[in-house]
Amino acid sequence: MKNTLKLATYFGIPVKIHFTFPLILLAFGMEGWVRGGVVEALRGTLLVLFVFVCVVLHELGHSLQARRFGIGVRDIVLLPIGGVARAERIPENPWQEIAVAIAGPLVNFALATVFFVVVWIKGTGLDFEDGFFSSLLLINLVLGTFNLVPAFPMDGGRILRGLLATRMPYLRATRFAKDIGQLIALFFAVVGFLYTKLVMLPLIAVAIFYGAINEEKMIHARLRIRSTSVEDELADDRGSADEQSWR
Ligand SMILES: [Zn+2]
Which residue has the higher pLDDT, 239 or 104? Predict the structure, then answer.
């Protein structure tokens, strides 16, 4: 990814920010400033920074789990809309794919528990409007839950594909998961337009819709590459080569 700046390296994995990343800090800082001056501006910016620390931890969850299965992770990139952990490949063993995908949301649920304990120790009670740690608790619950929505490119989409792939060929599982994801995208779009004023929902719907198509294309391309090399190397093992080039 171009236009990135390396911030730090954790567990040997470089964490980078995209040049557009400061925009989100600026946006939340401005929003706070308009609402309540300098104090609110600082609070808004600090909250976003904390959220992105949580995002890095989420991505590290995926990355470290992937590495356990011998999959190299190139880097973690932070964008205004979230983070991406870029690995050499996606595990094809369904159970490994499920384990890597679920590791991210599990980190958010663990963080939510930590923030719950912090609020409890402080004795201030839960306050999702103004409480800093209460907000972080809520945000982590939302991040964890939202990522489990069974639609590509969300973690839930990969978990669903993994579960399906335990019972059917990989490409069919991908297609099936893609169809379910697109139905969910449609649902988000309709609900977003008709019943809420959340501009985010239709936007997320579009992202899911194209995410689903991309995932299928990627798997297609990978299987095509593989089936040629398998054919070259194992000319006698035609059965498996054919099996890997489903339409
Ligand atoms: Zn994730």
Answer: 104
